[in-house]
Design brief:
By secondary structure, the chain is mostly helical. The chain contains 13 helices and 2 strands.
Length: 280
């Protein structure tokens, strides 16, 4: 492949991934700016498509290593239980707190729609759990794992927040969730990845359940100021979850945490973590 194309990607894989994830993810907004389509929103498959393109440009070894990571779904059952139960517990908690501030409790008819959460979860697992986390957690996070914990968190949280920016600007995503919630969520993600030796599928399941129970169910039961408050409460709740996760998992805060997940690509620099992913 043309070195003029591959060389910049190999020198700056993290930046290249970020740019591509945003370009693909914001595709509907870009098209709408040229008069094509209406009511655009982020394409959740943007991160996984970006990761596939970048790993392909990094070389065959990188692509194969990332593909092996995607097929790795084994993880302790207890962690999968956490990924499924915590989002439900968080949403139940913020509904009760929201009620203390004057919001109505869900009606029996609203709660009767809970089976729809299962179908929504399956859709979210494919579009959001895999579509986003195969990029954020299975590619970008391992790429910079040798950096200090909070530097990794700042880089990944910044990218995740920036990717969601169009949704915040258009009012489809509350700023509290888009900024505070995403930053706290990324802290939870890193704690899970570090504690479970990079089991990205746990994050994918958690993310899918978070969206299925939250945006797909609980947030449909209120509107107006009550819905706005619920968004703030969700962001605050995940800040608390992040603090608990930090205390429970006790991640190594210095650089060089764990075994290396990457090695330099042939002829590639490492200015932003330029490396080829390898199977552990």
């Amino acid at each position: 492949m043309n070195a003029a194309v591959t060389a910049p990607v190999r020198r700056h894989p993290f930046v290249s991934f970020t740019a591509l994830a945003c370009f693909v993810g914001w595709g509907a907004y870009i098209a709408a700016a040229f008069g094509v389509g209406s009511h655009p929103e982020n394409m959740p498959l943007g991160p996984v498509i970006a990761a596939a393109i970048v790993t392909a440009l990094l070389g065959r070894a990188a692509f194969r290593g990332w593909a092996r990571t995607l097929r790795r779904w084994s993880a302790p059952p207890g962690w999968y239980a956490v990924a499924l139960v915590v989002p439900i517990a968080v949403d139940a908690g913020i509904v009760l707190v929201n009620h203390l501030f004057g919001a109505p409790l869900p009606t029996a008819s609203q709660l009767a729609d809970w089976p729809n959460v299962l179908a929504t979860f399956v859709v979210m697992l494919v579009l959001v759990g895999i579509g986003e986390e195969a990029g954020w957690s299975a590619f970008a996070a391992p790429l910079i794992r040798e950096r200090a914990f909070f530097i990794r968190w700042a880089m990944l949280a910044g990218v995740r927040i920036f990717w969601h920016l169009p949704l915040m600007v258009t009012g489809m995503l509350p700023w509290s969730i888009g900024i505070v919630g995403n930053a706290a969520w990324q802290l939870v993600v890193l704690c899970v990845l570090d504690k479970t030796d990079g089991r990205w599928t746990l994050v994918a399941v958690w993310h899918a359940m978070l969206n299925a129970v939250g945006g797909g169910f609980v947030f449909t039961m209120v509107d107006g100021a009550d819905k706005d408050r619920l968004g703030v409460l969700l962001a605050v709740a995940y800040v608390l979850v992040a603090v608990v996760m930090l205390a429970v998992t006790r991640p190594a805060l210095g650089s060089g945490h764990g075994r290396p997940l990457a090695r330099p690509a042939d002829g590639a620099g490492q200015s932003d973590g330029g490396a080829v992913l390898v199977q552990r």
